[in-house]
Every structure is written in structure tokens, then in C-alpha cells.
Amino acid sequence: MSTPFTHFLLKFNQISPLEADFTEGLNTIALKPKILYFYGKMPEKVVIDGNLQRPKTVAIVGSRHNTKYGEEVAYKLAFDLARHGVVIVSGLAYGIDSIAHRAALDAGGKTVAVLGTPIDQIYPRAHEGLAREIIEKDGAVMSEYAPGALIYPKTSFLERNRLISGLSDVVIVVEAAARSGTLNTATHALDQGKELLVVPGNITSPLSEGCNRLLFQGANPCLGAEDVLDLLFPKHSKKVVKQPVLFGDTEEEVGILQALTDGERDGEKIMGRLGLTPSLFNQTITLMEIKGLVRSLGANRWVMR
Q1: 3-state helix, strand, coil in the chain (%, to 5)
Q2: What is the pLDDT of residue 53?
């Protein structure tokens, strides 16, 4: 377990669920938390269809040992949803959770991480930097456990899953083995009457066995962000969802930005997609990085700022 997060040098807040619009729904779930502790800022109401409302919120959860397929799907879903103003909720864990948080941040959106540890212990420790970025970009890191609280990891992480689903309008399962804590979140979603969507997976992959079993049992498949947006914004068909306006000084810059918006991050694949020479691509992407349009992930992988 992580050591106390004292070097974070931030004060945490303490509220009851009813004290914030974003968390008041937790007052109706089973085993409702009495107190919530959090760093950062709870998402505020936004204008939807001319009315000030709680922002639409989606939980994206899955395996800690994801495949490349799971990474690509989780990243694209979270990125596309965050670009449309949807708040992304997850558990800050290795794998799908951290990928979803990262994609929301890369899209310029808001994300909320729910810990299964006391508020002064970020777990895993390797994600302290991610937690800091979530907070600095007006998101929140929360826990129902007070600083220094004695917890039992085998149960506390499962208990936190009811909060992840309770905060969300829709819960998406990206990858899950036959026996997985992710399926516990899916169970809470169903118990709470939340929309549950499941990403289909390779039937030969153990990490998709739980997902495919949920689909066999009648869960609705998630084939892209459009499926989720149709649930969240039923008045708007997928045909009229506004795409972000891409500003680039050259045709190559616009093409690269469009590829990144579509979820592509690999420089080699972007070059192939646009028919660019390595020299022209490197020159263009370097200028875009200087302009603050893109950010390097290393190994010729890129995201929009």
C-alpha cells in the first residue's frame, strides 16, 4: 500500500454527498457514503438543451492488465466522449482506468478518480503524477476513506466500485476476465439502474471473457462513442453531433489533427494515412509541438493538447 501522500502539498475537502450537485446521487445508492474527501474541484453544472444541468458522466472501467486492443478502445471512447463535454469517471488503477483518465485529459475534458484507499494515499503510487494532473486540470480525486483510515484492500476496492457507478449515467466495461473486479462495477450499475454498455472482445482472449459473457446475458454492446452519446443526448442523433473544429496552418497540420481526433496516436500510421514522407511529417509535427497543438508520448506517438 502507498505511503501517505503528504508531499502532495494540497489540502483535501470534506463534504457529504448532498453538498455537491455532482455527488448528490450517491445519497440514494445502497451503502451510501456519509462523507466524501476529495482533492481538486467537483464538476459543476453545464448548459444542456438550454438548461443548467449536472454534466453527463460516464464510467469507463476494465482490466488492470489490458491488451493493446483494450488500450485503443478505452482511449478513443474516453477521448471522444470528453471532447463532447462528458465527465469521465474511473478508479485510477493500472490498465483501462488510467488510460481513460489520460484520454480525458488529452481531450481537454474533465475526469474524476475514485480511490479505494484513504484520501491521503494515492494508489498505485506510480499514478501520483496522473492524480496531480487531474487536479490541476479542474478534475477531482476522491475517496470515502478519511486520512489514515484502516482499510482492508480486498474489500475497500470492491466497495469503491459502487461509487464509480453511482456517480455515472452510463457505465462502460472495456475488458474484463471471467472473474474480475470490473464485473463487480457492472453489477452495481445494474443494481443502481444505470445504463451498462459492454465492449465486445476477441472470443479467444481471456480478458474479454467477462465482457462477452455479459453480452451473452443481454447487456448492450458499445461499438463507439456514438452509442453512448445517443443515450446521453437522445434529442440529438449521431448525424448532428458537432465535431470539434480543427485549426491548422497547413493541410498537413489539419490532417494530423484529424487523425489524432479519430484516436490514432502512432506517427507511422498517421504518415501512411495521409501519404506524408517521414521528412515532411517530422517537420510538421515538430512545428505543431512548438505551437502547442500536440504533445509527444514518446516512441513517435502523439496526442492533441
Answers
A1: 40, 15, 40
A2: 92
Mean pLDDT for the chain overall: 89
Beta-strand runs (E) in the chain:
13-15, 36-40, 46-48, 51-53, 57-61, 87-90, 111-114, 140-143, 170-173, 195-198, 220-221, 294-298, 301-304
Say whether both 225 and 263 belong to one domain: no
Closest CA to 110 of 63, 18, 45: 45
For residue 3, the tally of other CB atoms under 10 A from its CB is 10
For residue 115, give its domain range: 6-232
169 and 273 co-located in one domain = no
Q: Could you read off the pLDDT of 26-49 as tens digits, one per residue?
A: 999 989 999 999 999 999 999 888
Name the residue among 128, 228, 107, 111 with its Cα closest to residue 173: 228
Give the cell for residue 197: 454498455
Residue 8 CB neighbour total at 10 angstroms: 16
193: left (phi over 0), alpha (psi -120 to 50) or beta: left
Mean per-residue pLDDT, 64-76: 95
Strand extents, DSSP E, 69-151: 87-90, 111-114, 140-143
Note whether 206 and 143 are within 8 A (CB). no
Is the link from the previous residue into 124 a cis peptide, with omega within 30 of 0? yes
Question: Over 60: is that where the pLDDT of 246 sits?
Answer: no
Q: Is residue 242 part of a domain?
A: no
**The predicted structure's pLDDT at residue 245:** 47
Q: How far apart are CA 187 and CA 165, in angstroms?
A: 9
> Pick from 97, 48, 105: which is nearest to 81 by CA?
105
Q: CA angle, 164 as apex, 159 and 165 as ends, to 5°?
A: 100
Total domains present in the chain = 2
The residue among 79, 88, 96, 48 whose CA lies nearest residue 211 is 96
DSSP SS3 for 164:
helix
Rounded distance between C-alpha atoms, residue 136 and residue 3, angstroms: 22
Is residue 252 over pLDDT 60? yes
